[in-house]
Amino acid sequence: MRLRLSKGLWVALLLVLVAALSWWLQRSVETESQSSIDQVRHDPDYYMENFESTSLDEMGRPAYQLDAENMLHFPDDDSATLEKPHLIVFRGEEEFWDIRAESGLVLNKGESVILQGEVIILRVRPGHGEALQVYTSDLTVRPDEKYVETDAEVTIKDGQGVTRAVGMWADLNRRRVELLSNVRGTYVPQNN
User: Is residue 126 classed as helix, strand or coil in its secondary structure?
Assistant: First the structure.
């Protein structure tokens, strides 16, 4: 004996099957979407005020020190934003580079610090008179390497004059600076 289903029952079964398939598809898309959203979220996991961090060299002496008014850390890419960062890069005991900016971003577990807005760099040599002054913006610093670079305008002032350029890189450890383009300078002769 053959089981005969009426046309209405076939339509009802087909509708139930379509509804079940639609529900399953919707659930799988929602799960994938939520997973994607969770992966691209850029929410901070902690916040610090008036923080200070010092990195030591292989001899246990300070290599550089970073402090800021505020820091927000983001776990998704292990980055941190900084408000009013202040970075001191030590060059032995005879001098240090004092670098300040309006804001900053720490990347690659501290390998790179991007200083944004107005940036002021001072080369301080205690007991040697006025510091060398560098004014620029959007500076990338690799503190472990004592290296800085920018594509922005640069103004350098010292006791002998003023130099302006566009773009710069500097090896702070070797005191080597290369100005990249449009270099102009005004120098004042020293009276002996």
Answer: coil
**3-state SS of 87-112?**
EEEEECCCEEEEEEEEEEEEEHHHCE
The predicted model scores a pTM of 0.73
Q: How would residue 94 be classed by pLDDT, with cut points 50, 70 and 90?
A: confident
Shared domain for 36 and 52, answered yes or no, is no
Q: Bridge-partner residues for 2, per DSSP?
A: none
What's the whole-number average pLDDT of the chain? 85
Q: Evaluate whether 85 touches 104 at the Cβ level (below 8 Å).
A: yes
Q: Specify the CATH number for the domain of residue 143.
A: 2.60.450.10
Output the CA–CA distances (angstroms, integers) from residue 175 to 97, 116, 123, 149, 156, in the order listed. Answer: 10, 23, 9, 13, 14
145/172 Cα distance (integer angstroms):
9
- CA dist 121 and 158 (Å) reads 12
Q: Give dist(CA 162, CA 89) in Å, integer.
A: 23
In this structure, the answer to whether residues 32 and 67 fall within a common structural domain is no
Any idea which of 17-31, 35-49, 169-183 has the lowest mean pLDDT? 35-49
